Amino acid sequence: MSDLGERRPVNTDYAVSVLEQLKFFYEHKLLTDITLLVEDNEFPCHKMVLATCSSYFRAMFMSGLSESKQTHVHLRNVDPGTLQTIITYAYTGNLAINDSTVEPLYETACFLQVEDVLLQCRDYLVKKINADNCVRMLSIGDLFSCTELKQSAKRMVEHKFPVVYRQEAFLQLSHELLLDVLSSDNLNVEKEETVREAAMLWLEYNMEARSQHLSSVLSQIRIDALSEVTQRAWFQGLPPNDKSVVVQGLYKSMPKFFKPRLGMTKEEMLIFMEAEHPSLSEVTVGGSQYAVVCYSPQAEKVYKLRSPPGDLQKVGTLVTSDNDVYIAGGQVPLKSPLAAAGSSHAHHGKAGKMQAAYRATDSFFWFDAQQNAWVAKTPMQCARTRPALVYCEGHIYAIGGDSVGGELNRRTVERYDRERDEWTMASPLPCAWSWSAAVAARERIYVMSHDLTYCYFPRADAWAEMASRRTSRCFASAAALGDQIFYVGGLHVVSNSGTRPQPSTLEGSAVTVEVYDVGKNEWRAAASIPARRYSAPCVRAVVLFNQLCIFMRETHLDDRAKYALYQYDGERDCWCLRQPVSERVLWDLGKDFRCAVGKLYPSCLEESPWKPPTYLFSPDGTEEFEIDGEIVSLPQV
C-alpha cells in the first residue's frame, strides 16, 4: 500500500495542457466572467486566472465588497497594448519584453501588482543599465521603490558622472535624488570642480523654482577639495539673493578636512589576466592555478581582482577609452557551471584532450569596479576563445578567436552596442588567423598577423588590405598611440619546403619592433628592445600614462622571472628602462598572461600580500633568503 504522504513528481505535461486549455478558452471567449475595459478596448477574461497572477485583482475579486460582484472593471491610465502583454503572460507564462515596452510594462505591472512580471522587468532593466539611461533608471527605481534597480542605477550614475551630469535627465532629477548623488563618496570625479558644475547646472535649469534649494545643494560640494582659484571665484556665478546667508551656511557646515571622492583615488594599473600563482588563485585547471591581478606602478603594489565566473580562461580582454573593463568568450571546464548551462553557440575546443575537457563560450562580462565584480551582459552570437576585443567609435568589436571551429568561424566579427546591450554581425575578416593582434587608431580597426595588415572601416563595414610588414610574425603584441601602431615581439614565421609556416623563436636575441604610420600607410623598423641571451623574453605592449611602454618578462638561468617596464623614446628611437619590478612585489606570472591598462580604485580591491616563489626557499628551512641583492625574512602569511 502506498504511503499517502509520499510526494509525487509534478506532471508537467498536465500543467502545460491546463495552460493551453485556459488560453483556448480566453481566445474563444468561453466561460469568461470578467471584462476589463481600457479606453475603447474590451478584454474578456477569467477571474481565477487574473487573481492567480495579480494581487490587485485577487484583492478586488475576494474582498466581498460590491467590486467583487462586478462583471466589468474600468482600468484608467493603463495602455491597452501593455495590458494585453500582461494578460498573455497570465494565460501562457510567456512574457515579451524589449527596450520599447519594458518601462510601461513595469509601470503597469506595479499598478496591478503582478509580481512575476515585475521581477522579470526589473532584471531586464538592471541588465540594460548604461551611461545613456542610468539617470532615468535611477528615477524609475525611486518612483516604484525598487531597491535593486535604484542601487544598480546609482552605481552607474556614480561611475559615469563626468558624462551623465550634462544629460537632460540629470537636470530633471528630483531634489532628493540630486542630494543623494552629490553627497556620494563614490563619484568617479578627479576634481571637485565637476561636482560644483553639476550642482550649478541643476540649479540654473529652473532657478526660479529651485532657488529655495540653493543652500542644501551647494552644501554637498566639498569646498576644501576645490582649487584655490575656484574657491576665490566661488560665488561669482551664484544668484544675488541670500548670498551672505549661503556663504555663512556653507563654510560653517563644511569640515576642514574633506574625504576624497572615489574618482580622486583611482590609479592607472596594469591588469594581468590568467596570472599563474599558487597561493592567490581561485581557479585550478589542469594542474595550473590562475588569478586576475593588477599592478600599480605608482604605488608598487599588487591587487587582486575577482576571478571571472565559471572558471573562465582564455578570454578576450578590453579596457575602453572611458575606462570600462570587459572580458568576452573564453573556455570553461565541462564540470563548471557555465559549461553545464551550455550555449546555443558553443563549440568544442581543440582536438584531443582539450576537446574532451573544455567548451568554448559566448559569454560577455563588464567589470563593476566599485563592487569588484563581473556583471553578465548579453552573450556574443559566436563562441570564441581569446577573441581580439577592440573599442572603436563607441562600439566594441569581437574579432576572430583561436578555437571557434572552421576557417569561416575564425573570420567572424561581431559588434556590440552598449546602449542596447546587443550584438550584431559585421563583415568577416578577409583571412582566418588563429592568432592576431588588433588595435583601434583614428576611428579604424587594424588587425595584424604574419606579415599582413588589414584595416576595418566601421562606417562602411568593410575591410581593406594595407601595407605589408617586412617580417612575418605571429603571437605578437600591439598597441596604438596617436597615428602610430607598434607591433612588438612574437614568433617569427618561417616556411618549410612549401608546407604551412612554422613558428620559430628567436631566443637570445633582441625583441623586434615595427611601427605603422596610419597616415602614410607605411611600416618601418624601430629600435629593438635589448634582452639578455638567456632571457627568452615575453613582452606586452601597452599605453601607460599616455606613453608607449613594454612590460617585459625575462627568464634567467636560475629560472627566476624578472619583470621591468620599458618606455619608448620616439625622438631618439630607443627604449629606456622606466621602472624595474621587484620580486617582492610581483611573483612569477607565467608565460601565458595577457595585459591591459585601466584606472582602478585601490580601496575597492583586495591588496595581495607578497608570497615568495618556491625557488627562493632554502632546503634547510631557514626563514631568511636573498632577493634583489638583500637578505630578507619570510613574511607572515
From TrEMBL:
Gene3D superfamilies: 1.25.40.420, Kelch-type beta propeller, Potassium Channel Kv1.1, Chain A. Coiled coil: none annotated. Keywords: Kelch repeat, Repeat. Residues 32-99 form the BTB domain. It comes from Coilia grayii (Gray's grenadier anchovy). It comes from the Eukaryota. This is BTB domain-containing protein. Pfam families: BACK (PF07707), BTB (PF00651), Kelch_1 (PF01344). PROSITE patterns: BTB.
